[in-house]
Amino acid sequence: MDGTAIALSARLAGVTLLVLLPLAVLLGRWLAVTRTRFKPWIEGLLALPLVLPPTVVGYYLLVAMGNQSALGRLFEAVVGHALAFSFGGLVFASVLVNVPFAVQPVQRAFESISPDLREAAQCCGLTRWQALWRIELPLAWPGLLSAAVLTFAHTLGEFGVVLMVGGNIPGETQTVAISIYDRTQSFDHASAGAMAALLLVISLVTMAVSYGLVERLMRRRRSA
Amino acid sequence: MIELNFGRKLGALDLQVDVTLPSRGVSALFGRSGAGKSSLINAVAGIVRPDHGRIRVGERVFYDHDSGTDLPIEARGIGYVFQDARLFPHLSVAGNLRYGLKRARGTHTVGWDSVVEVLGLDHLLDRRPWNLSGGERQRVAIGRALLRQPSLLLMDEPLASLDAPRKAEVLPYIERLAREFALPVLYVSHSIEEVTRLADHLVIVSEGRTVASGELSDIMSRPEHAPLIGRYEAGSVLDCTVLQHNDDYALTTLRFADGQLRVPRIDLDPGAPVRVRIRARDVALALSRPMDVSIVNKLPGRVQQITPRDGPYADVTVDLGSRTLRALITRESCDRLGLQPGTPVWTMVKSVALDSRSVGFSRRPRSASPAQAPDLPQKPGAPAEAD
C-alpha cells in the first residue's frame, strides 16, 4: 500500500470539492433558471469532460498551464513555481474535469424546485438571496449531496488527466490511481491489488450510501 | 384606500384595471376563469409588472410607472394565499408559520396564539406539509400569510382546488379571519357563492377589464350585471339578522329592513347578522296577495325596472321599500300580468331555495369599525376535523 498516494488522493478530492461545490451551486442554480438562448452551448461546454478523452482535456490543460500562457505565467509569478506538474495544477485540472459531475445534479435539483415556491418565499418577505439560502438550498440538498459524492469518488478515480498535467511525482502529483498503474507496471501485484480493492470499496460504499440518502430525501419530498 | 389603476398586456389578455377599493373589509374580484383576476392580484403582489399606471395601498405606493417606483415583492408587506398552498416542504407546520412571523416588520398586531386558535392549527404544528389534507394545508397557508403582519391580504381562489367538504371546512375560517383581524382582503374567486358569503365590496372582472365595482348588495342588485354573474346564479343579497328559531319545523326566521324571511334552520343565536343570497330564478311574482300557496316568504313591493333578456326571460327588479329583490320570470308572464314600472306586486320565495349555500353569516354590521362593533356574532363552532 502506498500511504503517501492515498493521502494525496484524499487531499486532492477534498480540495477539489471545497473549490467546486460553491461554484457548482451558483452555476447550477443559474442554469436552472436562465432563459438565455446560449444555454445548450453552455451546458454542452460544461459536459465536454464527460465525452472527450482524458488525453485531449489533459493536453489543453497542459497548454493552458504552461509558461506560454497568461494563466501559467501569472501562477508562476505569484507562487514561484510552475502550475503544471504541481499539486495546484492538479487541483485546477481536477476542478475543471469534475464540473459536469458537480453541476448537473445541482442543476437538476434546482430545476425541480417550482418557481411558485420562490414566489411564495418572496411573499413571505424573503429577498431572492434569503430565499436561495433558506428555502432553495435546503430543498436542493439531495442534489448537492449527489454532486459532492460524485465529485469525490470521481477525483479519487481520475487517471488520464492527472497523468497528463501532473506527471508522476510521489507526494506531489502521484495519486492512488497513478500509483496503482506504477505498481502494476513494476509487478508489485500485492500493493496494486490492495489499493485497487480499497478504491473499489470506498467508491462503492460512498455511492451506495449517497444513493440511499437521496432516495429517502426524495421520497419524503414527493409526497409533500 | 386601495388604488389600482394600471394596465398590462399578457398574450391575448389586455389587462386594464381602474378601481378604488375600501381599505377595510373583503373586496372580491369576481369573474370567469381567464378573465384576468389572477394577473390583477399578481400585479398587486409584485409578481406581474404593469406596463403603465399606479398601484397604491393606503399611503404606500407599490408601483408607479411615471416615477419609476416598483417595490420588490418582499418589500410590499403583503400576505398571499395561493390556490395551491405552496407550503415549504422541508419545514413543519410551525416552521412554515414562523417564516411569516420572522419576516414581519414593525409591531405585531396578529399574534401567534390567535392565529393558531382561529385557524384551528394547534394539533397540526408538528406535522409536515405532506401529511396534511388539502384543507389543512390551506389553513396553514392562511396562517403563514396572516403572521407576516400584512397591510393587505391577497387570496387567489384559496378554495378552488378543494373538494366540496374541504371547501365547507375552510370557508368558516376565512369568514372568521376577516372579522377577527382587521385588515383589508383582496379575494379572487369565480364562485358567486363564496363571494356573497365573504365580500363587502365586489369588483367584476371581464376580459381583462374591471367592469363594475361597488358595495356587494348594490352590484348584485343591478340587473345589467346579471350576464356577467350568470343567469343561474344572479340575484339579490340581503343583510339580515336572526330573529328566532322554530325547532319543531327546523326553521329560522330572519329579519331585514323590509320584512322577514323563513329559511331552513341555521345554528346562530338570535341577533346574529346573516347574509342571504336570493337567486332571481327562485323568486316568483303575483299581482295580489297569494293566499293558498305553500310559500311563506311573501313580500309586497312595486316593480322598479323590467329588463328583457335573451330568449324567454325577463329580469324584474322589485322595490321592497328600502331593499330591492330581483325576479327572473318569462316575458310571457310579464306581459300576461301587465307588469310595468310602478305596478304593485307580491314577491314569493320558497324557503327551500334558501339552503345553506345561500345563507352565510355575515361578519359585522356594515360600516362599523371592528373596535366599535358592539357584540360580535357568536363564533361558529370549529368544524369537526376529518383526521
TrEMBL record, chain A:
Domain of life: Bacteria
Residue span(s) of domain ABC transmembrane type-1: 6-210
Assigned GO CC terms: plasma membrane
One function term, GO molecular function aspect: molybdate ion transmembrane transporter activity
PROSITE patterns: ABC_TM1 (PS50928)
Pfam families in alphabetical order: BPD_transp_1 (PF00528)
Subcellular location: Cell inner membrane; Cell membrane
SUPFAM superfamilies assigned: MetI-like
Chain segments annotated as transmembrane: 12-32, 44-62, 82-103, 137-156, 192-214
Gene3D superfamilies according to UniProt: MetI-like (1.10.3720.10)
Membrane topology summary: Multi-pass membrane protein
Record flagged with keyword Cell membrane: yes
Keywords from the UniProt entry: Cell inner membrane, Cell membrane, Membrane, Molybdenum, Transmembrane, Transmembrane helix, Transport
Family: Belongs to the binding-protein-dependent transport system permease family. CysTW subfamily.
Reported function: Part of the binding-protein-dependent transport system for molybdenum; probably responsible for the translocation of the substrate across the membrane.
Protein name listed in UniProt: Molybdenum transport system permease
Organism of origin: Methyloversatilis universalis (strain ATCC BAA-1314 / DSM 25237 / JCM 13912 / CCUG 52030 / FAM5)
TrEMBL record, chain B:
Keywords: ATP-binding, Cell inner membrane, Cell membrane, Membrane, Molybdenum, Nucleotide-binding, Translocase, Transport
GO molecular function annotation: ABC-type transporter activity; ATP binding; ATP hydrolysis activity; molybdate ion transmembrane transporter activity
Domain Mop: 292-358
Any matching Pfam family: TOBE
ABC transporter domain span: 1-232
Taxonomic superkingdom: Bacteria
UniProt region (Disordered), positions on chain: 359-387
Coiled coil: none
Cellular component GO terms held in the UniProt record: membrane
Record InterPro entries: AAA+_ATPase, ABC_transporter-like_ATP-bd, ABC_transporter-like_CS, Mo/tungstate-bd_C_term_dom, ModC_ABC_ATP-bd, Molybdenum_import_ModC, Mop_domain, P-loop_NTPase
Name of the protein in question: Molybdenum import ATP-binding protein ModC
Lineage: Bacteria, Pseudomonadati, Pseudomonadota, Betaproteobacteria, Nitrosomonadales
